[in-house]
Design a protein that fits this description.
- By secondary structure, the chain is α/β, with parallel strands linked by helices.
- It has four domains: about 170 residues, 3-Layer(aba) Sandwich (Rossmann fold); about 45 residues; about 120 residues, Zinc Finger, Delta Prime, domain 3, CATH 1.20.272.10; about 130 residues, 2-Layer Sandwich (GMP Synthetase, Chain A, domain 3), CATH 3.30.300.180.
- It is about 45% helix and about 10% strand.
- The chain has 24 helices and ten strands.
- A hairpin with a 2-residue loop joins β8 and β9.
- The longest helix has 20 residues.
- It is elongated, with a radius of gyration of 40 Å.
Length: about 550
């Protein structure tokens, strides 16, 4: 003969044995004592929280021969028949398998029959599984039931129950059991059933139960059958630590180890999400964390090291793959890809990672003032290549104890520009710094076209200057400093070189395609190429390209 399961053996048979649902017990007991019981109740809540057991207790106390203070006596014939499951006054129906309209018609016919007790109770489990025609058939009876009939509808998903049915019932919501109540209940069951279970195993059982009394007792029975010691299955802590350390290898290794031990990929993902949820609650609402004290401290530390943004992103990524796993041919691949995405440094998207990446980029732009400044080698203006025989020069900037002053910003302008990004550096290398007063840096471009191009990058350059100087810097342009050539004082204004020519002639590491062409000014006079280049690049020298032999 098979031994009865723990959750059936220790199912509550009185209201005072129902754990963690005091609000439900108080409402039902007062209704029974005052003879104001409702004709239809809707019990909703997570699985294993006592909905069906409460419905049976209600049926017992309504038909008990000698009730006392809203509690069934438990010894009369009616109570005994209900406990044994053969009472004529109580009919339990699983709405998941009896969800047709014919089943509801049969139930309605039964409800019209008389009964030897004071009440006839119909318990419908999983009522949200009823079909639309079945709901319609039940609706009229719920609205005007026989005076001796009480309907108790139980569901884990009340939102799927039609509003018309919910409006005709008294809705009582069941909650997951608080951890301290569940801990006391588990220890009492262990003592009463004479089980030998270690403290580590009790903590594991409470974690696996998740606040559900039935799930907790099922986990306890499994642990007791295995010798009373904690199972050596892989903890979700291993995956959480891999996410914190940004270690994809550790995450993949933990996944392989868990699957080798028989873990289902979907169940594994659900376990990790459950752990991440506890981390999230530990950050946002620590009072809502339903874990043993030792686990609560560990989870709080993990949550602190991860950060809220990382926890939320991990929950979102794993939640998406849980949906995809329903139709995926290889669920293991999905969880492996998700874990690599969460643990890879390059894919990190949390605030700390972004800040670190920004700091690395800024470090490459704003150099230390005490470090040597490397000036680019001379460039051949004709070819855009490094001039033959040219060497890069290295100058050591004067050490600075802090941010650059206004005078240093003007005097070291060339060194400052060399630290800009490629595109801004290409444009501002030909821009001269004239003065800096009260955070206003006055600069001058060689010509109008160059000034227009430089103004497109003013915002980015001002931001970089603010980082270098430690204060807000505003750039103001003066009139272009173009001077007429002494050899041709009356010569008409020459065509302006395009921005692509500027970038190609000055900086070898700038992609000219990134620059838009500046409008050229048509001239009625003919000008030599040498004069055009002298106009576009003040102070530059032309070097003849060596001829090939």
């Amino acid at each position: 003969m098979a031994v009865q399961s723990l959750y059936r053996r220790y199912r509550p048979r009185r209201f005072d044995e129902l754990k963690g649902q005091e609000h439900v017990v108080r409402a039902l007991q007062n209704a029974v004592i005052n003879h104001r019981e409702g004709q239809a109740y809707l019990f909703s809540g997570p699985r294993g929280t006592g909905k069906t057991s409460t419905a049976r207790i209600l049926a017992k106390v309504l038909n008990c021969e000698e009730p006392e203070k809203g509690e069934p006596c438990g010894i009369c014939n009616s109570c005994g028949a209900i406990d044994s499951g053969n009472s004529y006054d109580v009919l339990e129906l699983d709405a998941a398998s009896n969800n047709g309209v014919e089943n509801m018609r049969d139930l309605i016919e039964r409800s019209s029959l008389g009964n030897p007790g004071r009440h006839r109770v119909f318990i419908l489990d999983e009522v949200h599984m009823l079909s639309k025609p079945a709901e319609a058939a039940l609706l009229k009876t719920l609205e005007e039931p026989p005076p001796h009939v009480v309907f108790v509808l139980a569901t884990t998903d009340p939102q799927k129950v039609s509003e018309t049915i919910r409006s005709r019932t008294q809705h009582l919501q069941f909650h997951l059991l608080p951890m301290h109540d569940l801990d006391e209940h588990v220890r009492w069951v262990i003592k009463d059933a004479n089980l030998k279970v270690s403290e580590a195993a009790i903590a594991q059982v409470l974690t696996q139960g998740g606040g559900s009394a039935r799930d907790t007792l099922s986990a306890l029975e499994l642990v007791a059958a295995g010798g009373g010691e904690a199972d050596e299955q892989l903890s979700p802590d291993e995956f959480v630590e891999a996410i914190i350390d940004r270690d994809p290898g550790r995450a993949l290794g933990a996944t392989a180890a868990a699957i080798q031990r028989g873990a289902d990929p979907r169940m594994l993902a659900e376990e990790i999400v459950r752990q991440l949820r506890e981390c999230f609650l530990s950050l946002m609402a620590p009072d809502l964390v339903q874990l043993p004290e030792q686990r609560k401290t560990l989870v709080a530390d993990q949550a602190r090291r991860m950060g809220a943004s990382t926890v939320v992103r991990a929950i979102e990524v794993l939640g998406e793959i849980l949906i995809e796993m329903r139709h995926a041919p290889d669920a293991r691949l999905l969880i492996e890809v998700a874990l690599v995405k969460l643990t890879s440094v390059n894919n990190a998207n949390d605030n700390s990672s972004l800040i670190a990446r920004i700091e690395r980029l800024e470090a490459g732009i704003t150099r230390d003032a005490s470090a040597p400044m490397v000036r680019p080698a001379p460039i051949n203006a004709t070819t855009g290549k490094v001039q033959l025989g040219g060497k890069a020069t290295v100058t050591v900037a004067a050490p600075s104890a802090g941010p650059l002053s206004d005078e240093q910003l003007v005097s070291q302008w060339a060194d400052v520009v060399s630290g800009f990004k490629a595109l801004a550096r290409a444009v501002f290398s030909a821009v001269s710094a004239l003065s800096c007063v009260d955070g206003v840096l006055t600069v001058s471009a060689p010509n109008d076209a160059h000034q227009r191009k430089a103004q497109e990058h003013v915002a980015a350059v001002e931001a970089q200057l603010s980082l270098i100087t430690g204060r807000k810097i505003t750039i103001a342009f003066s009139a272009p400093t173009t001077r007429p050539s002494a050899a041709a004082p009356a010569r008409a204004k020459a065509p302006v070189a395009t921005d692509e020519q500027i970038a190609e002639a000055v900086f070898e590491d700038v992609d000219p395609s990134q620059l838009t062409s500046a409008p050229t000014t048509k001239s009625t006079t003919t000008t030599s190429v040498e004069d055009q280049l002298a106009k576009a690049f003040p102070g530059s020298k032309l070097v003849e390209k060596p001829k090939k032999k």
